[in-house]
Design goal:
single chain, 445 residues, mainly alpha, 7 helices, binds zinc ion, transmembrane, Pentapeptide repeat-containing protein, repeat, membrane, 5peptide_repeat
């Protein structure tokens, strides 16, 4: 038997047990399936070293004292391990295909299942907390309501596994393959899922709050009602994901790809979306961006980087809202974006740009406010009415016609007042042009 990769803590590697029946090996190592428990226990305590044992399809293994043994590279496929206590067992590299481990106890932090094959294993309600499952295969395994709290499962294959209501809080699942797994209501708060694959996984109402999902692949994942608050999705892919009602508040979406994702009823308030891609993403009027509580830093003490990020955020909201026929929200995001730009000009001492932006914001709300243009026009007319040296009724009339034409009331005015009329008329021409522009702009939304 090859011994290179066996644990070295429990004495020598050679088998000292007497040969069984007419074979050349002991009862533990002989290659026959379905051995009886009586034959295995006939010679009393089998000792600690059971590496490479062949226990295929053995029934009632819970009667054999296996706690504290090493079963490295052993074959236990199809064995009945229901309710077995496997504390402190070293099962590294063991093959446990189809084993029935329902209600078993493998907790304690010393059970070693590294590289073990647990395909289609039944692990319902099993306690696997703190177990070392690195690079193990749990394809199609049944982990319903099992506990894997704090388990080390980096590189583990869990494709199409049933992980419903499984407790995985704080588990390490780096680069794990969870594609097409059923993760409904799974509890994965604070789990380490960096680089993990969850393509096509069903995460309905799963708890992934504060999980590390950097570079994770969630293509076509079902994320309905999934709790992703505070999670880190930097460089992750959620392409085509069904994320209806997903809670992403406070999540980091830096450079996250959300192409064609369905974000109906989703909560994206307080998210960092710098560099994120939302091409053809779907939102509705209940998709929450937390406009009013979104930015924690006020504009006045924001740094240039903050302003760039905030501008990016408003640009994304504006574009998404326009594509999804939400013009009112698009306009709000546009005005916020312009206000951020104005603050940026001020921060960089770009006086001319800042003046232009301030005028544009003040006179016409960055091209969005026809009522603002009309209001400014009224102010110009009233100011003229106060300046002209005529009776109140007459001066208001003169001011109104001068707003449209500098020569209309020229004969009745003293020389200096004609200059007022000329300036007023110039303002009139500009304001009427602006009004036409603003109405034209609004109608193209
Ligand atoms: Zn042997």
């Amino acid at each position: 038997m090859p011994t290179d990769d066996l644990p070295t803590s429990a004495g020598g590697h050679c088998c000292w047990r007497p040969v069984w029946q007419d074979g050349d090996r002991c009862v533990w190592h002989t290659e026959c399936a379905g051995k009886s428990v009586e034959a295995l226990t006939a010679r009393g305590n089998p000792g600690r070293r059971l590496d490479g044992a062949i226990l295929t399809d053995v029934d009632g293994l819970s009667e054999v004292p296996l706690s504290g043994t090493t079963l490295a590279n052993a074959t236990l496929s199809g064995a009945d391990l229901r309710g077995v206590r496997l504390r402190d067992v070293d099962l590294r590299g063991a093959t446990l295909e189809r084993v029935d481990l329902r209600d078993s106890d493998l907790s304690g932090g010393t059970v070693q299942l590294r590289y073990a094959d647990l395909s289609a294993a039944r692990l319902r309600h099993a306690d696997l907390s703190n177990v070392d499952l690195r690079f193990a295969t749990l394809r199609n395994a049944d982990l319903v309501r099992a506990s894997l709290v704090g388990a080390k499962a980096s590189g583990t294959t869990l494709t199409a596994a049933t992980v419903i209501s499984t407790r995985l809080a704080g588990a390490t699942l780096r680069n794990a393959d969870l594609s097409d797994a059923l993760l409904r209501r799974a509890r994965l708060a604070n789990a380490q899922l960096r680089g993990a694959t969850l393509s096509g996984a069903d995460c309905y109402e799963a708890d992934l709050s504060d999980a590390d999902l950097q570079k994770a692949v969630l293509e076509d994942a079902r994320l309905r009602g999934t709790d992703l608050t505070g999670s880190d999705l930097t460089d992750a892919t959620l392409e085509n994901a069904d994320a209806r009602g997903v809670d992403l508040s406070g999540a980091t979406l830096t450079r996250t790809v959300l192409t064609r994702a369905n974000l109906f009823d989703a909560d994206l308030s307080g998210t960092t979306v710098y560099g994120a891609v939302f091409v053809d993403a779907k939102i509705n009027d209940r998709t929450e961006f937390g406009f009013d509580r979104g930015s924690t830093t006020s504009l006045s003490d924001a740094t240039l980087t903050d302003l760039d990020r905030l501008g990016w955020r408003y640009r994304i909201i504006e574009r998404l809202s326009r594509q999804n026929a939400l013009p009112e929200q698009a306009r709000r995001a546009y005005r916020r974006r312009k206000a951020v730009r104005r603050r940026r000009h001020r921060k960089k001492w770009a006086v001319a740009k800042w003046t232009g932006a301030t005028l544009s914001g003040g006179v016409m709300r960055y091209g969005e406010g026809p009522w603002r243009v009309l209001g400014v026009s009224a102010v110009v007319v009233l100011a003229g009415a106060i300046l002209y040296p005529l009776s109140p009724g007459e001066s208001l009339y003169v001011s109104l016609v001068s707003f449209l034409d500098p020569l209309a009331a020229a004969r009745e005015l003293p020389a200096w007042a004609r200059y007022v009329a000329a300036v007023q008329s110039l303002a009139g021409v500009l304001l009427i042009a602006l009004l036409v522009f603003v109405f034209g702009r609004r109608s193209t939304y």
